[in-house]
């Protein structure tokens, strides 16, 4: 039986989707965490290094404003600073693995929560809980969730944000690993939301697992896998 062919992502790369530079260092980090025999400590350590790269890339897509400072020599430096009104939103629970790196990069940032779980029988994403800043419609949002397979969870989270008035163009989805099927579904429905990811896998299996894959990211990161 021939494996299904994954859709092409060429249309979206460089526009809707920013893929981290596929350097030898990044490939080595992915090799360490994809190893099924990796220890919990190694998985967390190397995942956090990749997450930091993703957060930095995602922040680069947010707005900046001019800001002048005085240097130690007394000269003026015409620089930049982040515009006000930034917000992180994590998709519980795997997305919480990315909070620490976001707080390191942007101390004091407000972080909202969305709890969405996929029904194991129907594969449909169901919304269970939200806790978001009251003024989120006026903010620029970094949506944090490490895995996007079919795209169902990410799309459900985006519906929550856009239904509350957040413009698509004000959302950056920071994602650890995805597949062409997820990218296509995401970009077709939300073409103005930008995605930052570190890896695009070959395809999904019939059971919606990624190939070559990484396993259950949340379980491996929080140490609840078998």
Describe the structure.
The protein is an alpha/beta fold. It has a single domain (17-222), classed as Rossmann fold (3-Layer(aba) Sandwich). The chain is 29% helix and 27% strand. It has six helices and 13 strands. A hairpin with a 6-residue loop joins strand 5 and strand 6 (125-131). The longest helix is centred in the first third of the chain and has 20 residues, at 40-59. The protein is globular. The two termini are 31 Å apart. The model has no long low-confidence stretch (mean pLDDT 93).
Structural features:
226 residues; alpha/beta; Rossmann fold; two-stranded antiparallel sheet; 13 strands; globular; EC 2.4.2.9; Uracil phosphoribosyltransferase
Which SSEs are present, and which pair or pack?
Blueprint: E1 17-19, H1 24-34, H2 40-59, E2 64-70, E3 76-82, E4 86-92, H3 99-105, E5 110-118, E6 125-131, E7 140-144, E8 147-148, H4 152-163, E9 171-175, E10 177-178, H5 180-189, E11 194-197, E12 203-204, E13 210-211, H6 217-222
Parallel strand pairs: 1-11, 4-5, 4-7, 7-9, 8-10, 9-11
Antiparallel strand pairs: 2-3, 5-6, 12-13
Helix pairs in contact: 1-2
Task: Give a brief outline of the structure.
It comes from Streptomyces eurythermus. The chain is α/β, with parallel strands linked by helices.
């Amino acid at each position: 039986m021939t494996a299904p062919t994954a859709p092409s992502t060429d249309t979206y790369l460089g526009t809707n989707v920013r893929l981290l530079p596929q350097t030898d260092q990044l490939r080595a980090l992915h090799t360490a965490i994809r190893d099924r025999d990796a220890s919990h400590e190694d998985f967390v350590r190397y995942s956090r290094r990749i997450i930091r790269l993703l957060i930095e890339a995602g922040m680069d897509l947010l707005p900046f404003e001019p800001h002048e400072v005085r240097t130690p020599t007394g000269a003026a430096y015409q620089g930049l600073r982040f515009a006000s009104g930034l917000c992180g939103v994590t998709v519980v629970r795997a997305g919480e693995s990315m909070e620490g790196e976001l707080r390191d990069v942007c101390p004091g940032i407000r972080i909202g929560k969305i709890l969405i779980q996929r029904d194991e029988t129907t594969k449909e994403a169901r919304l269970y809980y939200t806790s978001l800043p009251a003024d989120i419609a006026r903010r620029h949002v970094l949506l944090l969730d490490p895995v996007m397979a079919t795209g169902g969870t990410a799309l459900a989270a985006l519906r929550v944000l856009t239904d509350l008035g957040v413009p698509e163009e004000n959302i950056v989805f920071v994602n650890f690993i995805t597949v062409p099927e997820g990218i296509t579904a995401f970009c077709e429905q939300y073409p103005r939301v930008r995605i930052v990811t570190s890896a695009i896998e070959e395809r999904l299996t019939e059971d919606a697992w990624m190939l070559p894959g990484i396993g259950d990211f949340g379980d491996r990161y929080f140490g609840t896998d078998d």
